[in-house]
Each structure stands twice: as C-alpha cells, then as structure tokens.
Amino acid sequence: VGGEVRAGETGYVEIDVPRRRAISRSHTATHLVHQTMRNFLGESATQAGSLNAPGRLRFDFNTPNAVPPSVLQDVEQQINEVLLQDLEVRAFITSLEEARRIGAMALFGEKYGEQVRVVEVGDYARELCGGTHVARSAQLGMVKILSESSIGSGVRRVEALVGLDAFNFLAKEHLLVSRLAALYRVPADQLADRVEQTIVQLRDAEKELQKLRAQLVLSGAATLAAQAKDVRGVAYVGTEAPEGATGNDVRTLAQEIRGKVDPARPAVVAVAGRSGGKASLVVAVNAAAKGRGLSAADLVKGVLSGRGGGNPDLAQGGGVPAEEAPRLLDAVEKAIAESA
C-alpha cells in the first residue's frame, strides 16, 4: 500500500472476515480463561496482559505461584463445559457504576469514562471490553491449554489454542501417542509408564558404559608407564586417550600412568583427548620431575600458547583442532628436552 491520505477523501475498508471471526473466538476464549482462573485461584488472579490471534491466545495474570497441572486440567475442562452450554455472548453499553454493580471485571489501572461497554458470556463471565466477540460460546468449538509459565515475579502466562487449531493439535497428539503405543506394544494409557521405564534403563546403561569406558582407559596405564621414553633423564609418556574418553577419563588416565612410574624417577605424562572436533591436553608431573624444575602448568601453557591452567602437579588445556593431538604430545616432549 502506498500513496498519501488527505483530509476529506473517501476511503474503502475491507474486513478479512475469516480472520476477524478467528480473533473473535480467541478473544471470547480469553474472557473465559480469565474468569475460570479466578474461579480456581481466587479474585487475585487478575489479568496482566493478553494476545488474541487467529486460533490462539496468550493470557498473563497475577498469581504468586505456578499453577499445578491438575488445576490447569480442571480449568480447561470447565471452559469447555461452558462452550457446550452454548451460552449467549452479549455486549451492551451501560454506566460505569452499573457495570461495577453487576460485577463486571475491569483491568486494573485502566481509566474508564462515564459509559462503558460490557461483554458477558451468559451468567458465567462479565467484563468491560471494547473488542470483537462471538455470538454464542459454542462457536469457539474447543479450547486447549498448551502451557503455563512464569514471565516475571508474581506473573504467570497461559497459552492456548482455540477452535480448529485446538482440534488439529489434539489430532496430531493422538497420532503421535498411537504410533508410540504401537512401537511399545502397549495400550495408550500405559505409554507414559513404559517411556519412564525406558528412560531409567537408558540412564542405568549410560552409567554402566561410563564404568566400562573408565576401566578401558585405565587398563593400559601400567603398560604405558613401563614403556616410558627417556628424555634427558626424565621418563616421558605421551599418549592419546581411547576414542570416546571424557575429559575426566583423560585426567584420570594421566594421573594413573604417573602413579605407575617409580617415584624416584622424574616423570612427565601427557595425555591428549579428542572430542567434538577439538583436542585437549592433560599433563601430570611427579615430585621428582618438579625437583628438576618441570611444571605441568608451564608445559601446558607453553604448548598451547598460554591457553590452559592448573598447578605444577596437574594441568590441562585445549581448544585446538582434533588433528593437532599428536603435535601437542610431540611439543611436550620437545619442551622437556629443552628444559630438563
């Protein structure tokens, strides 16, 4: 749309009727959500904001705590029962005093004139409102609450679907539940228990894998220590951790190899790991090597250009491409040769 509008000119306005009707359904649904929340949470659950869009709504309200799922379910059920009653939705103009007398809800902080517009859904909900609404509650079809969350101190937000959008959402959920139930070969009402059992089993399996991985990592520590290379009087072990080893596994392996070397012999152990496309380095130094002036922290920082941290006994760093792991081990050996 372009051009210039001048005073006195005639304009043509066209309303998108399907969109307007969809917004009307969402707006009436918002009134019902507001009233029903007050029914269950008390009159302090006042509106703090809202959004009415085609097929969906967002309603913000004041309440100190999260709304339990069981209460949300009851709220949703009561709203849909109101829809089934096919109550008349009526809008009328009256005085502010009369509106208050009949119990019409008003937004806190809003300024109203002598005459106000009241929208009521049967005897169920009555609120001051200037917006567009349906003619009867049954025209909403269905309301499905999707979520409830916090958006600030003492303010909660409910999001819901209305009409065909609510129906389509439930249809998709039904298909998903049916598919999962078929995969698990259980009735739909037993699906949640089976999924929970599966999650517990997966967590137990992950713990067992971690134990096995740690055993695999440490199984070669004694052999690696026995094969230490002599670098100007310092026993040096430079090795890569097995694929899939965690950062904790790499540290544990370095310390385990260091512990297998004769304490009287100066020793430096460097273990490189690869994960997520990056290489990491852990260096462990024993007391005899520290007596020769070697420091784990200095070796790591020297190899990684200052990146890394730790103490003279144990240090680590990383952040370089995974393919550089062998270079890190060679660089530690070279640093020992130059400083020992």
Summarize the structure.
With 340 residues, the protein is of the alpha+beta class. The protein is 43% helix and 26% strand.
Give, in order, the helices and strands. HEEHEHEEEEHHHEEHEEHHEEH
Number of strands: 13
Biggest sheet: strands side by side, in what order?
Answer: 8-9-10-11-13-12
Regions with pLDDT < 50 over 5+ consecutive residues? none
The description of the largest β-sheet is: 6 strands, mixed
The CATH fourth-level homologous superfamily of the largest domain? Threonyl-trna Synthetase, Chain A, domain 2
> Tell me, what is the CATH class of the largest domain?
Alpha Beta
Mean pLDDT: 92
What is the molecular shape? elongated
- The percentage of residues in β strands lies in 25-35%
The CATH architecture of the largest domain can be given as: 2-Layer Sandwich
What's the number of structural domains?
3
Can you give a write-up of this model?
The protein has 340 residues and is α+β, with helices and mostly antiparallel strands. It has 3 domains: 17-182, Threonyl-tRNA Synthetase, Chain A, domain 2 (2-Layer Sandwich), CATH 3.30.980; 188-217; 220-339, Diaminopimelate Epimerase, Chain A, domain 1. The protein contains 10 helices and 13 strands. The chain has a 6-stranded mixed beta sheet, with helices on both faces. A 4-stranded antiparallel beta sheet has the order 1-2-7-6. A hairpin with a 2-residue loop joins strand 1 (47-53) and strand 2 (56-62). Helix 5 runs parallel beside helix 7 and helix 9 packs across helix 10 (325-339).
